[in-house]
Q: What sequence folds into this?
């Protein structure tokens, strides 16, 4: 059987057979292999000979290989420190496990290769959603009036401080979940079931849970910002769910009617207020007009009076004229009975004025 390796794989020239014939098997020269496939410099120079004669000679580059390989390995190790950050990413740099820096600029960065420095990257802009309960489980909570409410909600959050998020807790998402459940149980435990299943109560509960949960994660320094608490559903127990649905429908109808009444009120009241202001303005204008006219008449009368007093005859004539004009205005349109002043005893003892007036009609 012909062997691939010679007896001396390091360049010997005798494989144990005849040195001149075809019985010699193929030889493997390590230096030639390295020279051809690794260094790619030159070509193997091998001279076959006679009996125990000359043999091929290849330069021994094994010491060079021993020197180059570590250099290449160190270069590859140093190059492993390059990393890139996307626009929404940040990176926390640890040196021998101790925090060093937080990188926020996107692009190419470098850190000392592991195990000297370690980089932990995270997306601080990504909106994350934590569903409670998970896998369509039933999450029941005791309410403030000692009833049972079935609640499902979602916590919308994102990383606010990557350093705290990476280093303050082993599993911050688990702590967030437990804290959210605790906050929801606390708020639901302070609220009655009627308030929980109402639309206005759901919004109020969401805001309270959000604030309480944010205070909790801030106290633990988790580096998490809670943006919203979305109550998916708040249901009473199945045994009384139908009755609560009827109550809720009645409340919704009441709120609808109240909103309609407020809409009518908002339509009528502004117009009534505007009409009232218009009437008041007209009345004030009329009052000012009448006052000004009266003042003008009185001033004109005073001027005429002053001129009249200068002449006694004119004054007497004017008084008589004013008297007649006044009597004319008073008696205009009235029924009048004229009696001769020379009649002895007058007319009253002899006739009834009321009957005369009836006959005149």
A:
């Amino acid at each position: 059987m012909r062997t691939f390796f010679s007896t001396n794989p390091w360049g010997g020239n005798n494989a144990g057979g005849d040195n001149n014939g075809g019985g010699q098997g193929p030889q493997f020269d390590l230096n030639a292999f390295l020279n051809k496939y690794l260094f790619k410099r030159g070509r193997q120079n091998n001279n076959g000979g006679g009996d125990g004669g000359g043999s091929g000679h290849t330069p021994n580059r094994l010491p060079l290989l021993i020197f180059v390989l570590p250099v290449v390995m160190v270069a590859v190790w140093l190059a492993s420190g390059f990393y890139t950050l996307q626009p929404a990413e940040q990176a926390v740099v640890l040196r021998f496990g101790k925090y060093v820096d937080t990188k926020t600029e996107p692009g190419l960065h470098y850190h000392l290769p592991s195990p000297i420095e370690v980089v932990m990257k995270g997306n601080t802009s990504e909106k994350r959603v934590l569903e409670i309960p998970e896998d369509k489980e039933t999450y029941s909570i005791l309410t403030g009036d000692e009833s049972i409410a079935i609640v499902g909600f979602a916590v919308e959050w994102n990383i606010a401080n990557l350093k705290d998020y990476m280093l303050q807790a082993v599993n911050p998402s688990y702590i967030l979940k437990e804290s959210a459940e605790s906050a929801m149980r606390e708020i639901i435990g302070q609220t009655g079931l009627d308030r929980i299943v109402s639309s206005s109560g759901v919004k109020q509960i969401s805001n309270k849970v959000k604030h309480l949960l944010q205070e909790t994660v801030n106290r633990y320094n988790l580096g998490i910002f809670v943006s919203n608490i979305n109550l998916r559903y708040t249901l009473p127990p199945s045994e009384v769910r139908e009755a609560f649905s009827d109550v809720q429908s009645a409340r919704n109808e009441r709120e609808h009617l109240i909103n309609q009444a407020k809409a009518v009120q908002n339509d009528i009241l502004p117009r009534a207020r505007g009409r009232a202001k218009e009437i008041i303005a007209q009345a004030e204008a009329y009052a000012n007009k009448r006052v000004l006219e009266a003042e003008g008449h009185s001033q004109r009368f005073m001027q005429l009076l002053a001129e009249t007093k200068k002449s006694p005859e004119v004054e007497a004539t004017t008084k008589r004229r004013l008297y007649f004009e006044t009597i004319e205005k008073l008696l205009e349109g009235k029924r009048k009975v004229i009696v001769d002043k020379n009649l002895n005893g007058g007319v009253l003892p002899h006739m009834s004025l009321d009957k005369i007036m009836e006959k005149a009609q």
